[in-house]
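Researcher: Next sequence.
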Amino acid sequence: MNSIDGLMFKAMVTNGYRDLKSHYKRVNELNVFPVPDGDTGTNMGLTVNGGIEALKSVDSPSLQIAAEEVGRGMLLSARGNSGVILSQFFAGLADGLKGFDQATVLQFAQAMEIGVKSAYAVVVKPVEGTILTVMREGVEYALNTLHFDTSFSDYFTNLVQKMKESLEKTPELLPILKEAGVIDSGGAGLVYIIEGMAQAIGGRIIEDVSFDFGTPALSVDVSAAFNADTKLDYGYCTEYIMQLSNSKGGPKNFVLKDLIDYYGTLGDSIVAVQKDTIVKIHIHTKSPDKVVTYAQKYGEFLTFKMDNMALQHNETLIDKSRYIATLVRPSKSHSKLACVAVVPSIPLEKQFKDYGATVVINGGDKNNPGADDFLSAYKDADADDIIVLPDNGNSILAAKQAAKLYGADHVHVIESRSLGEGYAAISIMDLVDLGLEDNLQRMNKALEGVTTMNFSKSIRDSSYRGVSIKKGHYVGILNTEIVASQPTLLQSFDAVLRQVPQFDKKGVITLFYGANLSVDFHDSIKTFLGNKYPFFEVYEIDGGQAIYDLIVALE
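Model: Next structure:
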């Protein structure tokens, strides 16, 4: 095979997705931190799934169209650092394939190089020994070994071989990987995807498997969230993909701006995209019937989805295929300044709302919202300028990627890397009496002055920067580094507390209790602090978070 078109590319990406799905749990197990909050395989799978969903509306043989849809779908669905990097790689690949209905091996290889540059560009300080290294070394080698008679099969054979070699060397470039006894998880996920694409070229279609996204089974009766006495305060989240129909004059008469203007009278949070004769729409409305009637004047639905947002608001039950972005309050009128914050649980939604957040994203147990979640939240915030608190180091890139899609000049991402940092920042925010610059200055200063601690049970034996970690012991994370592993939570808390820099200057300690923490422990830690550190002013919050049994902010 010496050229590929859009249909072949669609088969390749689908096969790559299936290969990743078959191995995503293995990729998850490669995370350096032995706690279940950074599931790289899951994040990458959800990212690629966005591209696969976008491809479902594509039946054109044009390679450009297929690549554009994959790239756009991944950009919107990207979550986690590896997911964002992966989405930028495929978006860059699409840029390199513009104008090509078909591509030769050389043209495709050169487009892959553009993908690598795009992936590197999204990371402020690229680190070698990661997915970026595996991507770059593989693509460079495969391009440099091309000859005039190299087939696509040969090209991908070289690409996969070099990527695997590069992946095996990642521990030599990143000592943390070597100490933990793992290879880079993002690089491993990429290899599965590329290997699946290579197998499609060879005619081997990988059997599809289900993707367990790790979301808990429903434990609540839907009727408790919406019953005969419930008022429809939030409306319906309505999404569709429509094919403009010649029989209805759609391609000739449809005007996207006219649809947006009309839908603006029916609801908010409107996302409208048109590519040739395909239209994609998202809207929050109390009148879905009018949304449907207007659309059907011009075409027919390829997909249609409508969810009661009261359920989404009350119990975060809707769309279990990914982590849920939940609005704490319905959209309000346009304002000069707004705040979007991420939290890991329903109880913390109210806490951050009380401190002035305009829109709160409930990122789910793993607190990993995607770019589409952030983009939707920015639209709901509806302000001249939006301050964003990702509150997770693994979500910062997704927040920034969504900012580019929304309009980066209007979105200001404060790089809060934990719940404790986000809490410190939002607690001094004042959207009413202070302007953008004053708030940014105060909130960034709060981040500089707070020390955070996170505690979770280890899911495997490991080692990190000299700390020996036993499965089932409590890992203690000081800011972003593991500094302790002890049999009990209280022992780990004590060990981490003793390592806090400038400890004598800290006077306020806020404890966020996890969902699985007993009341007895609440009493134990208060007694411990009262006896050993009586100078602390202690605040307690029932955070209800799932992964970290205890989160601490010291100020």
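Model: The CA atoms of residues 312 and 318 lie 5 Å apart. The longest helix spans residues 6-28.
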